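Could someone model adenosine monophosphate with this protein?
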Amino acid sequence: MSLIAVGTMAFDAIETPFGKIDKIVGGSATYVAYAASHLIKPIKQISIVGDDFPEEEMADLKSRGVDLEGVEIVKGKKSFFWSGKYHLDMNTRDTLITDLNVLADFNPKIPDSYQDVEFLMLGNLMPEIQIRVINQMKKRPKLIVLDTMNFWMESALDDLKKVLQMIDVLMINDSEARFLSNEFSLVKAAKKILDMGPKYLIIKKGEHGALLFHGNHVFFAPALPLEEVFDPTGAGDTFAGGFIGHLARTKDISFENMKTAIIVGSAMASFCVEKFGPQRLKEITKADIDTRLEEFVQLVNFDIDLV
Ligand code: AMP
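Reply:
Sure, complex below.
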């Protein structure tokens, strides 16, 4: 049992109210892989990098059970680069630079050894490439989860609408849900977005948790109240890695199990924000994850006598 993770492997430059870093490894698929590898192996990665992407990072990913056969390395070209600056509330950020570099010519090829995988995580990437990946799967995966962002809603809406009809679970944040649906109410937004194709919708609300919508059902999971949030970059992708990693490990795609998967995703994301880049995800152990999951259980556990 394994999962495919598709997305960017990148360099980021990040500025938060607490610090600034000019070059650190990031990318949607990098975060998904680091998070999911705590739950399931192998992770079959699909991405593209330039020859500037650090070999040590590749070796680290490999040592954690990330299969890199589907990662293309382009000689003489640069990896995707993204730069962002967070506002004081850390929930909102401005994208300063998006340099596609190698991503501009990305034409992913799914290795034969990746076929028959039942869980497909389409991390944030051009929607047209997400479509090409789905079309190359000889057998439709049991579950296709897609993450995207405002950048693609603004620059590739038609392709995004096409891919929404091909997937099971869409993950976006609250401002993206409002933008995509043209609705302020997240309940109305969810209805409109579910009508666009996905069977399940997860709306991430940063430090205010996440909502899962499916038909007329709604589930809410809080984010862990943390004393310090150092760098939220990658929290969404880490959430995605935890979410699909749990589903793939348990092979259960019921709404009930998705509730647990959201808690696992939230727990993984709560680690991600504690340090710059994916650093914290590399340090944590199974015991750390279990302790944090227990904190989540305590956070939302209460008795009530019905009146
Ligand atoms: P998140 O904070 O979870 O939204 O993800 C941040 C990561 O997404 C960073 O490491 C970036 O390298 C990557 N990223 C930023 N913009 C894009 C984009 N337009 N497409 C794909 N990946 C991106």
